[in-house]
Each structure stands twice: as structure tokens, then as C-alpha cells.
Amino acid sequence: MTPTRLDLRSALLAASVLHWSSQAVAEESDAARLFGEGRALVVEGRFAEACPKLEQSQRLEPRLGTQLNVAFCQERLGKLATAWGVFQDAASTARREGDVPRERFATARVDALAPRLPWLEVRAAVLEDGDRLTISLDGAPLARGSWSKGLPVDPGPHILVASHEGEEYWRTTVELRESEHTSVTIPAAPARATVGTSSPAEAPAARAASRFIYEVGAFVGLILVDTIRSSPDEDPASIQSSITNEDGTMQTSSCATAVCDYPSIGSSAGFVPGISGFVGYAATAQTGLGLRLLLGPRAGGGSLVAVGPSASFVVAERFRVGPTVLFGTASHVKQDYVRIATPNGFNDVSSQLQGTLGFSMGLGAELGWTLSSSATGSILLQATPLYLYGPNGDAWALPLGAAYRWN
């Protein structure tokens, strides 16, 4: 190799090194400039402008200090889950670098933010067809392994989109507040997305059908009924009083023909087993509107019947509550003495008496806990306390039970 060729090669190598060095200096300068601008904006409280500059500085030149500033800025901007994740990464980085004070600071922020995080659980109603189903959250696809698991998200609105074989068929917006836990079930794709035989006009009907809610359950609970007036719980002719006349003959009087005084049987407590149900419509992923029913016999005699419009709200990851306006009645049976008028005065006869509220109105509540979920529905533990008031008294009941709710 000639000296001229050798000198040329050396010059080219030096030029390339100088070019690389100047590019690195420029990038470092840009990172430092963006960091300075971002910090100045943070001091002014202009976090929406500061965060992108700090993030760009971190991308150009990753540094632990910049990473902590990014997390701090995101927290002040209200992006709690984003800040929580960056603080976790910063704690790991500080641990690797042996920076104990910064590791403690980042870990303390992680612990402080954890109870404030909203959590979103996304479930698919049909898992068998999951290989052709894609779910995205705010435009980013959700890995199948994250389905049915709680995900920390920033407070505010989030858009969920479900697609089948690349075609979107369902979309909703979920609004979460700090510390709120919410579960959303993605409905099955309409038939046209699977078979391809339904017309576009049929798709809204299929989508609407998936919003109907059906729930059937059983309960047992306590009931307290208090009534003013009573009536016979048996044939009035069987309530009899006999007297012996002067001539030795017997004369019998019964409540079928004689005047009888039925006393108030007051209040009594007892057990009431029965069935419950709810049928309605899912107005949103967290709200169901419909009719609730509770029906059952009272142990020892009597009954409970209550039905009315109801709402059901998901207020945490697995907890739901809801009010109900009720119409119905309740009754109870007790053994007491009936006074029967006879020619010689009144006689007291022991008999079964019934007290009924009559047509009543009242209020109820749903307190439910989702025990387990599957592709088709959920098993719920429920308490449905209620109160009824009628023309002949009032009643309190506390039914406790379990129900199955179809998706």
C-alpha cells in the first residue's frame, strides 16, 4: 500500500470520528438544553409543556436525574399511573448504580402513589375465539396475558376498542377517578364478524342484545313485620266457642256467624327464604337499569313480595351497589286469642291470626360482591335490605344470598 493511499485512509477515518464526536456533542447539547427548558417550565408550574421536553431529553441522553424529573412532572400533571411506573424504573436504575438516596426517594414515591392509582380490569365475554380478537386501550393493543388482570391507569377517560379479525365491532369510554377499581367485559363479536353472513343492518341489533342483563338468585334472611289489624288465618267457621244452656244442651258460636273481635298481633320477627331476580339493560359498562324482584314465604306463616325499578352501579373492581323503589306487601302469622260474642257474653278462643300490610311501597338497596367470573357470567354474593310501608303497618327485611348474572 502506497503512502498516499495510507494517508487518504487515515484522513477518512479521522473525519468519520470527528463527525461522530460532533453528532454526540450536538445530541448531548440538545438533551441538556431540553432538560433546562423543562426544569424552568416545572418551576413555573407549566407541567403540560415541561413533561414532553423532559421526556425528549431522557430519550436523547438517559440519566437517572432526568428520569426522576420526568416522573415528578407526570405526577404533577395528574398522570399517576405513568408517574408510578417511571418512579419504579428510576428506583431500579438507582439500585443498579448504587445511588441509595435517589433509590429511597423513588421508592417512597412509588409507595405514596400506589393507593391513589385507578385500576382497570378488562375481560372478554368469549375466550374461545380470543386468537381472532384484539383489544386496545387508548390506541395501544392489550396483550392477551393482561386480560382479566387489573391494570393501573391514569385518572380520566380511557377508550376501549374490540376488533375481530381486524374489524372493529365495539367501543366504549371508561372514566376512572383516583383509587377507583373498575371491571369491563368485552362482549362477543356479532355473528357477521365470525360467519360473515349477517348484513350491516343486523349488527346494531346483535350489539344491543349483548347489553341485556339477566340475574337469578336465592336468599335467606330476617324479616320483621308490624301490623295494626289482623284477620283469621283459618276458616272463621272453625273458630268456635261452646256454652251449656240451662236445659243441658250445647250451643256453639263461631266467627262465621257471631261477632268476633280480632286483636292486633303487633310485630314479630322470623326467617324468610326465597328467590331474587333482576332483568335489565346495561346502560354503560358500570351501570345497569331494570327491575328487581324478591319473593319468599315467611317461616311460621306469612310472606314477602317486593318488585320495582332498580339501578346497579359498579363502584369498585368487584363491588356493586344500587337503589330500588319497591312495591309489594308482607305478612306474618301469630297465635293469639279471639273474642267471640255468645249469649252469655264474650269468650276468648285461641286461633291463628294473620296480619298483612296491604299494597305497600318502600325502598331497597343492592350490596353485591363478584365472587367469581367466567366467559358467560358472574357469581355474586348479595345483601338486599328493604323497607315496606303499607296501610296496615310496615316491614323490614335483610335478605342475604347468592345470584348468577349472565353477561
Helix content: 25-40%
Q: Look at the helices and sheets and give the structural class.
A: alpha+beta
Any idea how many domains? 3
Q: Kindly state the mean pLDDT as a whole number?
A: 85
Q: What overall geometry do the principal axes of the alpha carbons give?
A: elongated
Strand content: over 45%
Q: Mind telling me which CATH architecture of the largest domain this is?
A: Beta Barrel
Q: Number of DSSP helices?
A: 7
List how many beta strands DSSP finds: 21
Biggest sheet character: 12 strands, antiparallel
Rg (CA only): 37 Å
**What is the first-to-last residue Cα distance?**
80 Å
Q: Which CATH C-level class of the largest domain is it? A: Mainly Beta
CATH-defined fold name of the largest domain: Porin
The oligomerization state is: single chain
**Low-confidence stretches at least 5 residues in length (pLDDT < 50)?**
1-27, 193-209
Describe the protein's architecture and organization.
The protein has helices spanning 3-43, 47-60, 64-76, 80-97, 100-113, 191-194, 203-209, and strands spanning 119-124, 133-137, 140-141, 150-152, 156-164, 167-176, 181-186, 212-227, 231-232, 240-244, 250-254, 260-261, 267-282, 287-297, 302-314, 319-342, 345-356, 360-373, 377-383, 386-390, 393-406. The chain is an alpha+beta fold. The chain has 3 domains: 3-116, Serine Threonine Protein Phosphatase 5, Tetratricopeptide repeat; 119-200, Carboxypeptidase-like, regulatory domain (Immunoglobulin-like, Sandwich); 213-233 and 260-406, Porin (Beta Barrel). The strands form 4 sheets. Strands 8, 9, 12, 13, 14, 15, 16, 17, 18, 19, 20 and 21 form a 12-stranded antiparallel β-sheet that branches. The protein has a 4-stranded antiparallel β-sheet with strand order 3-2-5-6, with no helix packed on it. A hairpin with a 4-residue loop joins strand 14 and strand 15 (302-314). Helix 1 runs antiparallel to helix 2 (47-60) and helix 4 packs antiparallel against helix 5. Residues 1-27 and 193-209 have low confidence and may be disordered.
